[in-house]
Amino acid sequence: MLRNQPPTESVISPAPEIRTEEMLLNVGPQHPSTHGVFRLVVKIEGETIKEAVPVMGYLHRGTEKIAENLTYTQIIPYMDRLDYLAAMTNNYVLCHAVETMMGLAIPERADYLRIIAMELNRIASHLVWWGTYLLDIGAMSPFLYAFRDRESILDLLNELCGARMTFNYMRIGGVKWDAPPGWIEKVANFVQYMKKELPNYHKLVSGNEIFIHRLAGIGQYDADTALHYSLSGVMLRCTGIKWDLRRDESYSLYDRFEFEIPTAVEGDCLARYWLRLAEIEQSLRILEQAVQQFPADGEIMGKVPRVIRPPAGETYVRIESPRGEIGVYIASQGKDKPWRLKLRRPSFMNLQILPHLLVGANMANMVAILGSIDIVLGEVDA
Amino acid sequence: MLGFTKGLGFTLKKLPEKKVTHKYPDEPFPMPSRFRGIQHFSPEKCIVCNQCVRICPTDCIQLTGKPHPDPERKGKIIDTYDINFEICILCDLCTEVCPTEAIVMTNNFELAVYSRDELYKDLTWLDGNRTNIREEN
Amino acid sequence: MEEHVQLTPLERYVTRIGEKFGESAIENAYINELAKHVPTLVIQKEQWKEVARFLKEDESLHFEYLSNLHGIDYEDRMEMYYHFYSYKHRQNLAVKIVLPRENPSVCSVAEIWGGADWSERETYDLLGIHFAGHPNLTRIMLPDDWVGYPLRKDYVEYDEEV
Amino acid sequence: MRELVQQPLTMWNLLLIVLAAIALLLVVLVFVTYAIYFERKVIGWMQLRPGPNRVGPLGLLQTVADVSKLLLKEDTRPKQADRILFALAPVLAYAPAFTVLAVMPFTESLQFADLDIGVLYYVGLSSITVLGVITAGWASNNKYALIGGLRSAAQMISYEVALVMSIVGIVILTGSMNLREIVEAQRDVWNIVPQFLAFLIFIIAAQAELNRSPFDLPEAESELVAGYHVEYSGFRFAMFMLAEYVYMFAMGTMVTVLFLGGWLPIHPALSFIPGIVWFVVKFSLYVFLQFWLRATMPRIRSDQLMSFAWKGLLPLAFLNILLTAGFVSIFA
């Protein structure tokens, strides 16, 4: 050091008391437990989170802009890629919106096929959530069991519509394929197998004390906060509000099946965990009744004009997807392409409560809370 | 304190059970008959009606027709037909809309290539891809 | 209170809001058959803030759940579409607001319904509608240095087809 | 081996000792490669999948392939990393894990150094690994590594105390800290029977010391990506993996020696089976328990971990010491 050089600022030690300042930590967009390209800029002190700012848009493909110059049949493959874990529900919500606008009648057999496909997809989506959520908490094996059972669902859907995840199965006014011979029996066998398999899931993890301590009381909020943040699906039902669009604003043939709406009261991660597993049981019950009531014959496609032109005007429909209430708004000017297509995406709305839940939580809780919201990034950034 | 012992018992019971892994590279993966794989194109059936180009959501099909060689038959036959598999999403709308079933889906899905321009498949390649073609379309 | 019973939900809303804010507040009110007969109100842009608070706090309306919020570009005007639901009365309500095409601006409802926060940011990001009073109105989907609003009909592609 | 150490130091003796040490190192390295292989196989089987089976017959060469890949890979170092500490951390983590094996009595004759303070030597040296982990966390100039390093510091120190306290019970019972004498004292009944509470505490504290299964917080994949060794690659990363498994080897021998009666047969009638077989059987039982726990148990949270150590394990350990002392003073 030159002797006559004045000491620079950094050389002099800082103020006498030790200055602690928060650390800005980037969680994502490439991070094992953000379920996709989702970045969370977290200001932490030690390990408690002071403030979390989510950064999104990494998977924004501008589906709404593309849809404005596509005909309705062409939009359906794009809808598969929003919530790619439950593509059937996305297909259905678009077809349901256009059918409501045009007032089309759907043949019964097509509606049954749609409901069976949607409920199978709901179980597959909850299985993926169950496997990856436990991977975040640290248990490695449940992931493999969940994906083994999901594989049998994907095989069923693959036989039905030719694809494992991006189905493109439903058309405006009905469905594209009829059930192949023997498919319904395979669905019935799967339902029996899954009923025996669910208690094993509970045996593996649900009783584990470490697991319960990791989730009880974490990410807790009450009914009013849930409504304030427009949460839907399991995020709403875990605070005690008994609301499921399949029953309360019934669409398709859901009023023919009787099933309960599982709700909880605590509103924490553990409640959401139990709710989603209970929802798998309810979907199995619906599937069982749907397979029994499945009509022996009937068309799979209603009377639909060759070029689909919904009347000028607008519509907004919403149905129950595994992640919550998915809605589609279509403004049409009588042409075969929508003037404006808006997608009300449950993951995007449910994620708004994350910054508020994370204040004061620590890193391990952050992973537990984010996992319990069950987001799919294709849907958040649509 | 018994909760985690149940879990341990469960994993121990799974130890001797039959494995579910499918040895894919060694044994071919059996796809159901309706599986949407890479398209097969039969040029003699095509009547150059451009339906598939119009319906394709990602506009990945380009085709050019030329007038029929022998004069008394009018109409066109296909000259070049290529699909850009970089953006094709195998959504099966083109086969649905094709009036003469010139383009149908096959069940094979292996399409890994080393360079992007190998993904531009032309007419001859699509015609050659005729293994396990899907029966019902 | 008895004569309220025969009124359809739509008339009930119109009368309730009319008493509180005067007839001018509601430009138009109709039942939208295409959307499962949801009652739709078109409300004046200026009084939207008070009407919104009234929609939530008033006992007979009590719309505490905002299901969806977004903007539409009709080339000669901009429109905002809100969809509410009241768990107490099991009622749907759609509210539309007409905005001018050039620098459209409406007051934000993010304080009333927390769920509106990100939807308003997304509408601002993609359509360029300014929300006065929004706590943190920045782009949510696109990078912050993005030029233009993609969902507008006159939007010029930022980069030509790759 | 013990007689060699007492004789005067001639060139020949020195050579023999060095060769014996290298032999032990080879044994440990072979153990590590096949411990990793069997861990992936056992966890695979528990998850209904076959585990590694592509490299070599039945996948036996899988770990050899991994280690050679690690050796050939470039040894990256972050730009602002603290050069000296970054290189020192793996050595600090690995060295104590290996030196601790000097004092382990594998069988009556097979022991390197018969120290009278074997237990103290083991406990003293094994806490140096914490330093290696913290320097790794600090030196790699990465936020995730820092959190991982600090977490593991807190965890290893608090469980070190519980570990030591649980051993004190045995030392009182046998009256000496010499590991060979502890094994000799278990001739009629193994220590696991009278000291079952200490056995439980030891097992749990050992899990935390090794950063494994319910307590693998420092390298929690889902939160900290890979904890303190996130910036390491190539040979240095191999050193950390080596340290973890050699330390598991050491902890396994400690459990067998302290609680399961080292090379002693279950029943004197079976003593025709050589001691080393007994030792290996008990040792692999403990290692299997590790794999089993790793396949099933979720991860505990860091604040729960702390309160469990100080408010749960430590009082139990003191209670155990009290009982043993009372028992010994009444009957001795």
Question: What can you tell me about this protein's structure?
Answer:
Chain A is 46% helix and 12% strand. Chain A is built from 15 helices and 8 strands. In chain A, the strands form 3 sheets. Chain A has a 3-stranded antiparallel β-sheet. A 3-stranded antiparallel β-sheet of chain A has the order 6-7-8. In chain A, strands 4-5 form a two-stranded antiparallel ribbon. In chain A, strand 6 (313-321) and strand 7 (324-332) form a beta hairpin. In chain A, helix 11 runs parallel beside helix 14 (363-373). The radius of gyration of chain A is 24 Å and the shape is globular. The model of chain B has no long low-confidence stretch (mean pLDDT 87). By secondary structure, chain B is α+β, with helices and mostly antiparallel strands. Chain B contains 4 helices and 5 strands, in the order H-E-H-E-E-H-E-E-H. The longest helix of chain B is centred in the N-terminal third of the chain and has 12 residues, at 3-14. In chain B, strands 2-3-5 form a 3-stranded antiparallel β-sheet. Chain B has a two-stranded antiparallel ribbon with strand order 1-4. In chain B, 20% of the residues lie in helices and 18% in strands. Chain B has a domain at 35-128: Alpha-Beta Plaits, CATH 3.30.70. Chain C is an alpha/beta fold. Chain C has helices at 9-21, 48-57, 116-127, and strands at 26-32, 38-43, 65-73, 78-86, 91-99, 105-107, 130-132. Chain C has a 5-stranded mixed β-sheet. In chain C, strands 6-7 form a two-stranded parallel ribbon. Chain C is elongated, with a radius of gyration of 17 Å. Chain D is mainly α and 332 residues long. Chain D has one domain (2-331). Chain D has 13 helices and no strands. Chain D has helices at residues 2-6, 11-46, 62-72, 83-99, 118-126, 128-139, 143-174, 179-185, 196-209, 221-224, 234-258, 275-296, 302-331. The chains are: A alpha+beta (382), B alpha+beta (137), C alpha/beta (162), D mainly alpha (332). Chains A and C meet through helix 8, strand 6, strand 7 and strand 8 of A and strand 3 and helix 3 of C.
Which chain pair has the greatest contact?
Answer: A-C, 40 and 35 residues
Radius of gyration of chain D: 20 Å
Class from helix and strand fractions of chain B:
alpha+beta
Strand order of the largest sheet of chain B: 2-3-5
Tally of strands of chain B: 5
Question: What does the overall shape of chain B look like?
Answer: elongated
Kindly state the mean pLDDT of chain D as a whole number? Answer: 88
The helix content of chain D, as a percent range, equals 55-70%
Biggest beta-sheet profile of chain B? 3 strands, antiparallel
Number of domains of chain D: 1
Approximate strand percentage of chain D = under 5%
Count of helical segments of chain B? Answer: 4
